[in-house]
Every structure is written in structure tokens, then in C-alpha cells.
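Worked problem 6 (solution included).
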Amino acid sequence: MNREIKFRGKNKFYDNWFYGYLTKEKDKYFITENSSDFYQIDPKTIGQYTALIDKNGKEIYEGDIFHLGDPNITYAVVYFDTAFRGKQNGASSYVGLEGWKNCIEVIGNIYGSGVENVKD
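Solution. The predicted structure is:
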């Protein structure tokens, strides 16, 4: 399997996101988009790229909130049982992402997307 390994994280000091390679130095996490610029990231917001895109062409990351057509039923992308899955809001059920990738529509993320946050 050949897939792009990258991460996203919210800047530790400002309200913006960075995408790229994740590094750790002592107790601080950084994302670099190239070899010269490093941005300190809030570790609670780090999410790995799933190597999938939603039906609108948006990359899907761990921590994203999505639905499968019914906007009243939302899921959060989590890593569970050796794979990325969608955890249904308010339930203990999961859906596999690969089989539903053509139906997934990302509508936000668990870090303050304007929709109800989904927690493990």
C-alpha cells in the first residue's frame, strides 16, 4: 500500500490550521509544510490524513465530522481497531470509511466546527 502520510493540527497560538509532516521535540509538536518552516501545534488537535477524500474532493482527517446523506446523523473520524472509522454521534457504532467514501461529506471537525462535537 502506497499512501501519503501527513497530519494536520491547529496552531498553538493562533486560530489557523497547518498540514504536513509531524515532528516532536521534547514535549512540543510541530507541523512542517516544507523543510524550513515549522509551526507549533496544539497536540489535542493533531489528526492523521486517512488517504481518502469526501464526495466534494475534500481530504478526510482524523477528527473530521461527516454525514452519509442524512445531516441529522453525524460521525466523527476516529482510529479504532486498526483502521480509520466513523463513530456515530451519541452511539457506540462505527462505519468503515472505505466502503462509504463516495457518500461521505465532511461538514466540520471536533475542534469547534459549529456543529455538535463528537467525543470518544
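Discussion: The longest strand covers residues 17-25.
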